[in-house]
Amino acid sequence: MAPLRFSANLSWLFPELPGLPARVRAAGSSGFEAVEVAWPYAEPPETLARAAREAGLRLVLINTPPGDQEKGEMGLGAVPGRQAAFREGLEQAVRYAKALSCPRIHLMAGRVPQGADRTAVKAEMETVFLENLRHAAGVLAQEDLVGLLEPINTRITDPQYFLDTPQQAAAILQKVGRPNLQLQMDIFHWQIMDGNLTGNIQEFLPIVGHVQVAQVPGRGEPSSPGELNFPYLFQLLEDEGYKGFVGCEYQPQGDTVEGLSWLRSYWDRRGHPEAGQ
């Protein structure tokens, strides 16, 4: 069984460093082979691509734009009346993905509109999401890109988010039926919403294209105090044959580099992916 491959989420790690290029360099110096970033759009893609190339890193995941955050938007994929804006954002994400040689884009579903009842608008939002996903799958297929759906917990992180369980996301993926759309498994969100991680990982891993990790409930490093036994979960992912990247999307509890002791321990035990290449 091959060791897991880890990606530094630059929207969360190295917050002491200003700007994404500096965080890219820090990730490379810390031993990562890949990075991911939620929204890279404040930087020209050429700047990020050059920083990644110089650091010997791959960029493996970006998100579609969030929309108008001042109005409370956090993605547009399932938001009624915002279909045109979603498609414009998708085009921007594809441009960045191509420039960055990034193979995956998280297609953000978005929030239930303010003042709306979730139950009352669920059917309409799913219809919008399905239409947008079918469109996105076609656009992404032309560029050999993969689109990801990520459930985000509605108990702690984002009570208004539309897509909040792996079961809901898997059902939507099945309805769309496009092979280049997959599931993004953030273990932090899955534990909060449903638990049963062993069963859910075994059930859904065949359609998972990317994994992210953080401790629960504090969203710190995997080695920080919390509910989750990450040595067990990492072994489970290995045993189940997961070959994708594991994104480190957590809030460092102190200095980012010092807080990576858990990852250095993993590499010492399992070997660094670059060893022997």
Structure description:
By secondary structure, this protein is an alpha/beta fold. The protein has one domain: Divalent-metal-dependent TIM barrel enzymes (TIM Barrel, Alpha-Beta Barrel), CATH 3.20.20. It is 40% helix and 13% strand. The protein starts with a strand and ends in a 7-residue tail after the last helix. It catalyses: 3-hydroxypyruvate = 2-hydroxy-3-oxopropanoate. This is Putative hydroxypyruvate isomerase. Catalyzes the reversible isomerization between hydroxypyruvate and 2-hydroxy-3-oxopropanoate (also termed tartronate semialdehyde). Pfam families: AP_endonuc_2.
What are the defining features of this structure?
277 residues, alpha/beta, TIM Barrel, 8-stranded parallel β-barrel, 8 strands, 40% helix, Sugar_Epim/Isomerase, Xyl_isomerase-like_sf, EC 5.3.1.22, isomerase
Compact overview of the structure:
The protein has helices at 20-29, 45-55, 83-100, 118-142, 166-176, 187-193, 197-204, 230-239, 261-270, and strands at residues 5-9, 34-36, 58-63, 104-106, 146-149, 181-186, 208-213, 245-248. By secondary structure, it is α/β, with parallel strands linked by helices. The longest helix has 25 residues, at 118-142.
